[in-house]
Amino acid sequence: MMAKNKFPKIALGAWAWGNDGTFGNSIGSAELKPIFDAAMDAGLNLWDTAYAYGMGTSEKVLGGFLQGLPRDSYLVSDKLTPQCMDGSTSDPVAAMHGMQLDLMGLDRFDIYWVHNTSEAPRWIRALAEFFEGRDDAPVIGVSNHNLAEIKEADAILREHGLKLGAVQNHLSLINRSSEESGILDWCKGNDILFFSYMVLEQGALSGKYDTTHPMPEGSARAQVYNPVLDKLEVLNGELAKLAVKYGVDPAQIPVAWAIAKGTLPIVGVTKVSHVADAAAAAAVELSDEDITELESLADTLGINAIRFWEKEMK
Predict the structure, then answer these.
(1) Helix and strand numbers, DSSP H then E, in the chain
(2) Residue 295 burial (10 A CB sphere; 0-12, 13-18, 19+)
(3) Which domains are assigned to the chain?
(4) pTM exceeding 0.85
(5) Distance CA 292, CA 28 (A)
């Protein structure tokens, strides 16, 4: 399995590159290429995508940028999404995995996840059978799983001579259920990487949006965050104060918080400035006192940030 020190402190997410309506804007390859180049120049070479992000759109765009680069110069994290699989084939895992590799023009993935718990544990077992005994087996992870499901997945993988290498769940200042449920501690105790996604809550914790500057109308994120922008303003105000203290932009504080919790945050990038923010956030070390105060404030706001595809991690 790939050593932890092979990974950068931050992964870059290509969810918005799928233009699937979640973010309320559409962005093309010409706009994304400078973002990709800036990230690679900054040493941020771990890319997270999924077929579900625009039904292959994100994968195709990212794969196009990777063509011609040395294979050891980047890392790709992709996902087996049960809801997107072709149940008519004799081996759905092989079919989807092969299709995704073809879409991206790759011969292997560095990390491969079971995207959610639909029909769990069927697909982690199928994935274990698919990669058993293979020299090119990636780091295998599970996403959106609770602690019992994570332990079950690890046990199944071990039956096939493999082990769970990573967990990817929603974790932010306003959704700490993966910490409160013991998942973070279990991952640390078992040498498993925890990838935190939506640490900025799709921009809600970036300081960019407030009651007078709401998220794009009609977007999925606007439906969730616009009704609680008054509460988010309070938290963003504290993030802004800490940003001044540490000499960074407000959006870098939640990312630095996620790193301080021992996780590897996935930061979505749709602007070159997002790459610069991510690189700078990796260098910020928040004090224990600042972390405690941030979490206490966030807890008092009572914001429910669990999204429609998720569950509370009990």
Answers:
(1) 12, 8
(2) middle
(3) 8-301 (3.20.20.100)
(4) yes
(5) 40
